[in-house]
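Support reply, case 0932

Customer input (verbatim):
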Amino acid sequence: MALLKVKKYLTVLASFIIMICIGSVYAWSIIASELIEEYRFSASQSQVIFGTLIAIFPVTMIFVGQLGEKIKYRYFGYISGLLFFAGYSLASYSQGNFILIFTGIGVLAGIATGFGYWVALTSPVQWFPEIKGLITGIAAAGFGLGAVFMSGVSEKILTNENVLQLLRIIGISYGMIILVFSNLIFQNSSISDNTEVPVKASHFTSSKTFRKLFLGIFLGTFAGLLIIGSLRIIGGQYNISNDNLVQGVAIFAIANFFGRLIWGFLSDHFEASLCIFLALLFQSLSIISLNIFTLSDVSYIFLALFIGFGFGGNFVLFAKETAQIFGVKNLGIIYPYVFIGYAIAGITGPISGGFLYDFSGSFSYAIIMASLMSLAGSLMFLNQYLTSRKYEYFK
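Our regenerated output:
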């Protein structure tokens, strides 16, 4: 019994650490700005790389989910670590070549992120099915916190080295950490003996529930990814110090981290549709404030914090709702399909922001678009919440 308890908590810890490593992608705006400055990348090119990674890793999760019953989870972690190392190393030796950086970060690191995210999200929830929201929040919070460490590391390394050397250091160190902590991922063998009925993905994807979850996570993450992919560039349009531009990325990540924990905790006590409405509304209002208020060092930091907090809700609320409706055992099979909404947002969100900036020379139009997308998602789930309340009232 004591050994099982140790395995439970080691799995949560290892999942959290792996998420921190692969979540370093959320500090992409720091790398993007360096690529634009040093290697003359356009804003669109920098966001194509980021968007491709975000698109590839949910698709990878579908493939991993089909293998989940046949292969030990820790092997997925090993694959993640090796591909992460290979991808970042390739990019670091590219000499600024777009195709090589795209292949290394966008494709190989994207696949690595899919393997790592699946195992780090699925494993701990199976050990704690009674508090799905909180445990999902803890696991997903690691992914959000990754940008904090990446921002700190980047700031120190970029003082003396260039961005390609930064990629090399990240690839080696983070790849090794993922490999080591994958050894502490344990599976809950009793999960296969429970009474949950296995769900076929084909049945789920044709349902109204799927369409709402899919569209909701698309709208919410489209808005957030458009902003985080270019956060430093947005701040750079104003007279904000470079230190605060970097700190803004870190603050976003910290708020994203706490947002995932808090929204996860709240979802264990309130209806998920209400929580999703509030999270996406909060995100929408925070994003449009980038246009409403003149950005200063202080307002830039606060708005980065608010946007990050709202954005964090996307990655726990939709996963928790999937597990709640279809069971913990089916989370690893069904949620990757819901997460495809995030994949599409990963392509369309950042790239739309990059194109609008290249076209207009300002992020104002992109900010308006992002805010409206998040608002649309919030209103959709407000309608769902009010409909469910009305049904309960007349029942």
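We compared this against your earlier run and they match. Two observations from our side: The mean pLDDT is 85. The two ends are 44 Å apart (CA to CA). Please reopen the case if you see a mismatch on your end.
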